[in-house]
What we know:
The chain is an alpha+beta fold. The protein has 14 helices and 44 strands. The protein has an eight-stranded mixed beta sheet with strand order 37-38-40-39-41-42-43-44. Strands 1, 2, 3, 4 and 5 form a five-stranded mixed beta sheet that branches.
Amino acid sequence: MRGRTDASFGHMTSPREQPSPQEQSSQVSFPRQYARTQRFTLGAPRGFSVAPDGGRVVFLRSGSGTDRSHRLWVLDLDEGVERLAADPGVLLGGAEEELSPEERARRERSREGSAGIVGYAVDGAVELAAFALSGRLFAAELRAGTARELPVPGPVVDPRPSPDGRWIAYAAGGALRVTGADGSGDRALAGPEAEAEGVTYGLAEFVASEEMDRARGFWWAPSSDRLLVARVDESPVNRWWIADPAHPGREPQAVAYPAAGTPNADVRLFVVDLTGNRTEVLWDRASFPYLARVHWSAAGAPLLLVQARDQRSQAYLTVDPDTGTTEVARVDEDPVWLDLFTGVPAWTPDGELLRIADTDGARVLAVGDRALTDARLHVRAVLDVGAEDVLISASAGEAAGSPETGEIHVYRVGRQGVERVSEGTGVHAAVRTGPVTVLSSARPDAPGSVVRVLRDGERVAEVASYAVRPVLSADVRLTEAGERRIPCAVLLPSSWREGDGPLPVLLDPYGGPHGQRVLAAHHAHLTSRWFAEQGFAVVVADGRGMPGRSPAWEKAVSRDLTLALDDQIEALHALAGRFPLDLGRVAIRGWSFGGYLAALAALRRPDVFHAAVVGAPVTDWRLYDTHYTERYLGRPEQEPDVYAANSLLTDDGLTAPREPVRPMMVVHGLADDNVVMAHTLRLSSALLAAGRPHEVLPLSGVTHMTPQEQVAENLLLLQVDFLRRSLGLTA
């Protein structure tokens, strides 16, 4: 689940690439604009790579704020100009893009709704880029600005050049293949295994890409002469069937879904050279079945992070690539669970193990056993490991002098201590190689993000954004509420004035692990702002279980996810004394975990909540995947009472309905292969059996995302209509 919060339910620019007046016009409704621009992400630069010689920054960007097709660009820092490196419209000859099932699955796992070049990989010098379009392999020479197709069998998935730029490896047809960068010498290095159905090489399994944030299945050696390749055998995994009731003539789609308590895919790792010789990497897979991270750099031996199934222990392993044997570099243990982080584990330049660890109640950056940061920072990710320092992403920790509600900053951690790189209130991110840093900054009082390029700390360029300006301004108030100091965002209608009286309230949370909603960024609150403009006081609260504060805050929900509801109520009541909130008219809406939370609110606390919009909810945690669910609730066969206590289907609000009964509108995509439609169908059956009125809105052809423009737009409008009817509000 990983915090999916689908809220819908110097440079050169040509006139053609600017947003049209119609796109910028305030006459366009927010729901339509929001859907058409894919939450205002289209036209914004993303996916940055920095050349080690400091001369180039490579990135993706679509042609306008409503153009779904992303192109590959190069910013020449010496000349101060942007050049188009690859245009999918040209490369495909204007043909519509066709996606293979494997690519569709990858995009669903990453919640990628756009088109064109949505991902790419570069060689070590950032001179060659490889990417897939319509299952075909393309390579771009970044200095020359030329791109060409390489004749290889497809459909191609996740192509990646070797560090020396001579080869491109890719997954296709269940095999890991390699071709010369000039298109010659294509061959299979591992697989396919025709006799073993469900076996693939070079692809990540479901729980790795959905929950571990590991989308890759192969890794080049720094010497470019061999690779580490994952072999995934899905034959032990139970098969579920996703049907399309709107098209009964189509066969259901088989999905290997590892639900809580059931078998996972069998994942192995091999060292494979360019002739196809392979050596299995050996570790105690019975104790540590999850391959969570793989790191292979010139600073040391290949490094693995493997996890126990209960995620309370994990081992850092070094690999001998000649023999496949491993040695334990370190074992971490935690009585609750261990989180995974971007950018670690890694080696420092002098060969020490770099990791993010929970130590003495704080989340710190550590080298070996030495903590490089303390409780004043809550470390979130490692962005770059340099010769003199480490670049990290972090929030203010529990010991910080003052709260920085919703802020995320970039810091340098080195011999001179800790230095903040980003400036001003906001959410900041960075990519760095050598002396060049690409710093992206989003602020609560300004739309979009500003992307600046720094060389040795000095600004040398800014990357243009073509994103459409929203017709709304977020105008959000960030604060803390209650004894627990719960981070909150509050949005009131722009027309409200002192003395106008209290407003009906809409809680708009995600509320679950890995899904921070209270952010010091403008666009994070646009949908909440639109609901506020419909006459609601909107409250977004990030209670226990949410990231960005402390390990104890996140781990408080172990075995009891319903604590998230307690914190929503605490925040609501605490804010009522400071804002015009009518506690006699309170609704809640949410998607995914937020949908679960909304249904929980209506069932368990009808004394507080008067209506709920329940989007793609997890209703029975036995139907959700292993890695996510078992981290928080354990194994269902071992702790059935925990699953029953957290389930909506066994809730005593159903079996012994609490009065008064509150209306619910339940929304779900029929094609959802993450939170499958069975969750909503079982909830609806239980509600019907209990005699509880409710509405179900099935979305034909929609997955866990709602990328379709008409669906996304009308879904917002239907939610407002339901909330007005349920709370007795006039139109």
